[in-house]
Structures are given as C-alpha cells and as structure tokens.
Amino acid sequence: MTVEPTPPAPRRPFPRRRPGPGDLLALAYLALCVGLLVWALAASSDDGSGGSMAMVVPILATAPVGFVWLALPDGAAMAVGAVLLGALANAAVIVWCGRALRRGRRPDPLP
What we know:
Blueprint: H1 21-45, H2 56-61, H3 76-103
Helix pairs in contact: 1-3
C-alpha cells in the first residue's frame, strides 16, 4: 500500500498581523461617531428646542468629509450617509497615520 503525500495547506494571501494602535484608535473613533449619530437622531426626534441643532455635532466630528452633507439633498438619510461616509474616511486616515508612524523611515511593505 502506497501512501500519497498530503498537499501543503493553502497559504493565506495576506499574513495575519496584530492590530496596531492606529487600528484600535480608528475603531474607537468609529464607535464615537456612531454614538454621536444615535444621540443626534434621538435628540432630533424628541420634541425639544435642542433637537434642531443636534445633527451639527456628528457632522463636525466627521469633518471635512462630513460636510458633503451640505451638497446633498435635504433629508435624514442623506445626513446619516454623510456622517457614515465621513467617519469611514477619517478612520482610514487614522489607520494610515498609525501605520506611517509605526513604520518610521522604512518603506511601506504594502502596495
């Protein structure tokens, strides 16, 4: 009886790496933006005088991409979309800055 050798396990295209400080900071920033968005939506649905300006806080927290909301048509869905888009773009910048600071003067290993 002949035993055929087992093929090697498939390799992952990208090796795992532990999350850096920029990754964790970006996740904390995203959680903060989602919390501000939920608060603003809850405050604007309430019958109070402060609800009309509540959406300004998440827009300012996601600036400058959050200011896209000014060019979009009026509506709550567009404001939520602008905040989410701004939060994701700023989180990507936070991760990029964290990677650049961790790398130092070495070239970027990722393409």
